[in-house]
């Protein structure tokens, strides 16, 4: 554990202020009206930072904004020919460097799912790439996994370093920081202090105890193998999705859900082409122009969500499209539990129609 | 003495399905369950953590072709029974398809408030209710918190803790007394200046994700897959991530519930960002009472004011 730095509680705000001069620094902050649900916001002096509870939102908007302008256009009528219109394109804004500071290890791993979707294969998403190239992730060893957490069941743990450039470990007097990548080590030049022997030792203990602090049961890998066997079992999917409200809480809070829609938002002769979050739980997600909808009910829609995360994506990319953060379950108005559904795939239980 | 299980047993032969709650992923989050097998009656629970309003499934699921003829047993707290009544009023479910098990309600628990009230931090392994106290068990031991301190905002203003419509009633809990001023929260906001109110809503709605949980958890938002929030032809609301678009959606949502909202507060409970969207609908409920002396969801035979037209009405 060499190459470590230390930042005390008292110095943290100043560090973030200095970092903000070079980059947009996204931190979990507490809002006055929702003290128990911190969310990621660009750092500003005087903010009420809170690294303790799991933030309600993931940091995914940093790399994949909820609404992103891809281009602007303007129609111009030709003076000579009344019917001719010209489309004028404007390049989108330049991308600022960003730092995600103090996310959970699960959130950091979530970005790796995005990387596969947006950067691998023959089509590289230029917008995502531009953001990702200038992005750095500082994750924090997870202080308190709760009953909805299941990173352990998707091949991770609360002290995982995968996907992080820097890992911060909470100790009594502040945070011990470890650079994990080249970028991360470069970043640590911003933090002058080194931890004492005692702080190093405390960090080691925090790390070790966090590593084993989530009880997620067995890995979901074996259960997920049964997805195709269950695919056509309509009664199974109806039974397990009956209480789903078809809202977008699960997908919008999910660090790994990356589906989007493209719309042209026009206002007179001006307009923007917008990429915005979409959710496979919504009816219109697969609505076709003909009026046909291949996923007409929530049973087909939820099946697709399970399949995408635990079967199709792993088959193609070698990992679950799920980081086990548990937000989909924790904040679902009716407690839809995707873990339980994956676990049930292989069971031979009788279901009722 | 009646228990939840004995009551459900007693109606079992008259229904095809019973909508109730069972234990969810942890003791704090009971989930809706659809009981179709007699042996599953044992899994049903009722306590102040059973927050979801089960009437949401009636217009959105039990109106489909395969479910239209099903007889439904349904557990209903006071607010839930108002939603059921409103659905009957609007012809969205037939009264004779329903067997309503009314539940006297002491208020439902706000999990965030409970987390704040705790002095211990270990994961909760059990929750029990007795004598107005919530008894929380974790690895750190047992601690008690007064239920009054941790109930949801919607329940602090509830006027119908005793169900308004039922076939049989279960009196497991003392119904919460009617508060002096049920519209105190709305009035506190309304007493502020226009600028302050605008600033309040812009700040609150700015964090809206447009996940539409508020809409989908609402038992009376019945347009289902044809909501104009997502309609592209015509397009009313853009996909832009701006507070103006979010504001517009919430205003449309509110106005479509004017004179219909039964103040169950599910919109606000379902919101992951904890935006107090219930306040908007409470205001319309207050207007309906002031203007027409109408309280939605309290009389199955009454006609909702905005579903009728009376040329003699003045003052609108």
UniProtKB/TrEMBL annotation, chain A:
Residues forming the 4Fe-4S ferredoxin-type domain are 235-265, 312-344
Q: Example GO molecular function term?
A: iron-sulfur cluster binding
User: SUPFAM superfamilies of this UniProt entry?
Assistant: alpha-helical ferredoxin
Pfam families (UniProt xref): Fer4_22 (PF17179)
- The answer to whether UniProt assigns keyword Ligase to this entry is no
Keywords of the record, alphabetical order, are: Iron, Iron-sulfur, Metal-binding
Tell me which InterPro entries the record gives: 4Fe4S_Fe-S-bd, 4Fe4S_Fe_S_CS
The answer, when asked if Chaperone is one of the entry's keywords, is no
Query: For this UniProt entry, which residues form the secretion signal?
Result: none
Q: What is this protein called?
A: 4Fe-4S dicluster protein
Q: Which organism is it from?
A: Desulfosoma caldarium
Q: What is the taxonomic lineage of the source species?
A: Bacteria, Pseudomonadati, Thermodesulfobacteriota, Syntrophobacteria, Syntrophobacterales
UniProtKB/TrEMBL annotation, chain B:
| An MF annotation (GO) of this entry | metal ion binding
Concerning Pfam families, the annotation shows: Fer4_8, FrhB_FdhB_C
Q: Which residues form the 4Fe-4S ferredoxin-type domain?
A: 251-282
InterPro entries membership: 4Fe4S_Fe-S-bd (IPR017896), 4Fe4S_Fe_S_CS (IPR017900), FrhB_FdhB_C (IPR007525), Helical_ferredxn (IPR009051)
Name the keywords, alphabetized. Iron, Iron-sulfur, Metal-binding
Q: Does the keyword Repressor apply?
A: no
Is DNA damage a UniProt keyword of this protein?
A: no
Q: Known Gene3D superfamilies for this protein?
A: Alpha-helical ferredoxin
**What's this protein's name?**
4Fe-4S dicluster protein
Question: Whose protein is this, by species?
Answer: Desulfosoma caldarium
């Amino acid at each position: 554990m060499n190459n470590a730095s230390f930042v005390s509680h008292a110095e943290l705000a100043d560090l973030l202020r200095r970092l903000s001069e070079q980059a947009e620094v996204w931190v979990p902050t507490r809002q006055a009206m929702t003290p128990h649900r911190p969310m990621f916001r660009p750092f500003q002096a005087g903010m009420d930072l809170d690294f303790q509870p799991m933030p309600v939102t993931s940091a995914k908007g940093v790399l994949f904004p909820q609404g992103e302008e891809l281009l602007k256009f303007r129609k111009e009528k030709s003076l000579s020919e009344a019917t001719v219109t010209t489309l004028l394109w404007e390049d989108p804004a330049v991308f600022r460097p960003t730092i995600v500071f103090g996310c959970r290890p699960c959130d950091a791993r979530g970005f790796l799912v995005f990387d596969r979707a947006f950067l691998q294969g023959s089509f590289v998403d230029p917008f995502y790439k531009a953001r990702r190239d200038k992005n750095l992730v500082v994750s924090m060893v997870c202080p308190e996994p709760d009953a909805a957490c299941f990173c352990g069941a998707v091949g991770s743990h609360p002290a995982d370093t995968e996907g992080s450039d820097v890992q911060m470990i909470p100790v009594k007097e502040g945070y011990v920081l470890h650079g994990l990548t080249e970028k991360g080590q470069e970043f640590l030049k911003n933090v002058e202090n080194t931890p004492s022997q005692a702080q190093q030792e405390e960090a080691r203990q925090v790390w070790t105890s966090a590593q084993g602090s989530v009880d997620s049961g067995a890995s979901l890998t074996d259960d997920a193998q049964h997805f195709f066997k269950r695919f056509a079992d309509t009664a199974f999917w109806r039974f397990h999705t009956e209480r789903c409200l078809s809202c977008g809480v699960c997908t919008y809070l999910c660090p790994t859900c990356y589906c989007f829609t493209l719309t042209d938002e026009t206002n007179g002769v001006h307009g923007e082409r917008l990429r915005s979050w979409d959710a496979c739980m919504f009816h219109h997600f697969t609505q076709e122009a003909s009026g046909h909808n291949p996923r007409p009910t929530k049973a087909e829609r939820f099946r697709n969500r399970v399949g995408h995360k635990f079967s199709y994506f792993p088959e193609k990319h070698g990992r679950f499209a799920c980081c086990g953060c548990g937000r989909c379950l924790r904040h679902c108005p009716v407690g839809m539990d995707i873990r339980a559904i994956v676990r049930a795939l292989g069971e031979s239980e009788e279901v009722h129609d | 003495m009646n228990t939840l299980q004995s009551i459900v047993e007693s109606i079992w032969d008259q229904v095809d399905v019973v909508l109730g709650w069972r234990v969810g992923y942890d003791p704090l989050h009971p989930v809706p369950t659809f009981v179709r097998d007699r042996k599953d009656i044992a899994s049903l629970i009722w306590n102040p953590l059973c927050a979801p309003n089960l009437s949401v499934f009636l217009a959105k699921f039990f109106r489909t072709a395969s479910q239209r003829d099903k007889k439904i047993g349904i557990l209903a707290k006071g607010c839930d029974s108002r939603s059921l009544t409103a659905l009957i009023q609007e012809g969205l479910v037939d009264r004779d398809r329903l067997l309503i098990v009314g539940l006297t309600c002491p208020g439902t628990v706000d999990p965030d408030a409970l987390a704040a009230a705790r002095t211990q931090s270990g994961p909760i392994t059990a929750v029990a209710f007795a004598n107005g106290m919530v008894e929380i068990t974790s690895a750190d031991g047992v601690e008690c918190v007064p239920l009054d301190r941790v109930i949801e905002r919607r329940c602090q203003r509830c006027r119908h803790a005793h169900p308004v419509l039922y076939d049989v009633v279960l009196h497991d809990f003392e119904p919460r007394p009617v508060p002096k001023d049920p519209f105190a929260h709305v009035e506190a906001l309304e007493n502020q200046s226009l600028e302050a109110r605008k600033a309040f809503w812009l700040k609150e709605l700015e964090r809206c994700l447009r996940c539409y949980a508020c809409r989908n958890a609402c038992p009376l938002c019945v347009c289902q897959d044809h909501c104009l929030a997502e309609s592209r032809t015509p397009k009313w609301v853009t996909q832009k991530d701006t507070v103006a678009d979010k504001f517009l959606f919430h205003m449309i949502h509110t106005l479509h519930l004017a004179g219909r909202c039964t103040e169950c507060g599910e919109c606000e409970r379902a919101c992951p960002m904890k935006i107090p969207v219930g306040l908007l609908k409470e205001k319309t409920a207050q207007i309906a009472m002031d203007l027409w002396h109408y309280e939605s969801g309290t009389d199955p035979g009454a006609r909702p004011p905005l579903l009728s037209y009376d040329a003699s009405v003045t003052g609108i």
